[in-house]
Amino acid sequence: MNPYSNTKPYQRWSSAVADKYFTDIDWTLEKRFEISKADKIISLGSCFAQHIARSLLQSGYNYLFASESAAQAETRTFSARYGNVYSVRQARQLLERAFGVADYPLSNESWLSHSGKIIDPFRPNEFPNGFDTEAEMLDERRKHLDNVREIFSSADVIIFTLGLTETWLDIKSGAALPVAPGVYGGPWPSANYQFINFSYSECESDLREFAAIIKRVNPRARIILTVSPVSLVATMENQSVAISTCHSKSVLRAVAGEFSRSNADVFYFPSYEIITNPAAAGIPFECDYREVKRESVSLVMNVFFTTFTSREHSGLLSRFSKEERVDNQKLVECDDLIISSLLTD
After folding, report:
1. Confidence bin at 7 (pLDDT 50/70/90)
2. Where are the beta strands (DSSP E) in 207-307?
3. β 166-170/193-197 pair status
4. N- or C-end of the chain: fewer Cβ atoms within 10 A?
5. Is residue 325 part of a domain?
């Protein structure tokens, strides 16, 4: 006898993973709580999080939209119009601004788009046509923060998909931006902004403060953390983008795992592992090895519903014919795809 003698089959590589097709791996997880159809669910995070929101809506769960986002139900993006929230610092500061903890005034409160329109540096992709005046943009920002306050105060379940450690900061205020200046517009080159690659301790501190704000304003809320399996489209580090991707995802995975282990009302869900485990061997990805196939998203959600609800999601787990396949770039709105389109090899 030894400590591993009484482990269950799903705890052993030989029975849970070895010789299995990636869709047949046993992803049994500890069930800490159950999500009902009555629970109000909100989400935020990187572009992979949009798949989660869409699946919840299609399956009849109570995915909560703020009043400003009611008209967005058809696009199935996020619970409020914050757009993609890639870094933990960005998520923390979003709540700090919404709940009056800190303001983070930017060096340039608005940017001028390539077409001459005013755009919001905090939400450059949410209003692609821009605004006519900065006052109009700031008024929309205030309404947006009111709506962020509304949904985070009333949600029963908050799903946060961690995406990146690399980001850009406004030097004056330390505000984290969703995308580098110059991509959608704004002054570039500029001494007002700096690149940063957040460390483990910085991400952990940001996540702790993010959760602390939620705990203060909504003590009953449960948090589900997951990590996006989508690789970086480009890196500012002087190394292969593949190395930077591994570093970024490793830091976020470690932070999310450790934080969930030490907080009873926080749960880690393995979206990242389901898509990138060795048995998958690249199968879940499109030909660019970056975009995740619809079938793979269905597998993730099948495990999600099996873990958190009393039903399975297997109805959406199917082999799509060539005619049924769609370009994932049309299903999700990713700011980094704009970066990719601006690059030349």
Report:
1. very high
2. 222-227, 266-268
3. antiparallel
4. C
5. yes
pLDDT of residue 22: 78
Question: What is this structure's pTM?
Answer: 0.87
pLDDT at residue 205 tops 90: yes
In the structure, how many helices (H) and strands (E) does the chain have? 10, 9
22 falls within a domain: no
Structure tokens at 35: 């999500």
Domains contained in the chain, number: 1
Place of tokens 């046993």: 26
Nearest to 204 by CA among 250, 164, 259, 165: 259
Strand extents, DSSP E, the chain: 41-45, 111-112, 118-119, 157-162, 166-170, 176-177, 193-197, 222-227, 266-268
**What is the extent of the structural domain holding 123?**
40-340
Residue 194 sits at the vertex; the CA angle it makes with 189 and 196, to the nearest 5 degrees, is 140
Per-residue pLDDT at 209: 98
Choose among 22, 27, 26: nearest CA to 283. Answer: 22
Contact between 111 and 184 under an 8 Å Cβ cutoff? The reply is yes
Q: CA–CA separation, 92 vs 266, rounded Å? A: 16
Q: Is residue 50 part of a domain?
A: yes
Q: Are strands 157-162 and 41-45 parallel, antiparallel or unpaired?
A: parallel
Does any domain span residue 345?
A: no
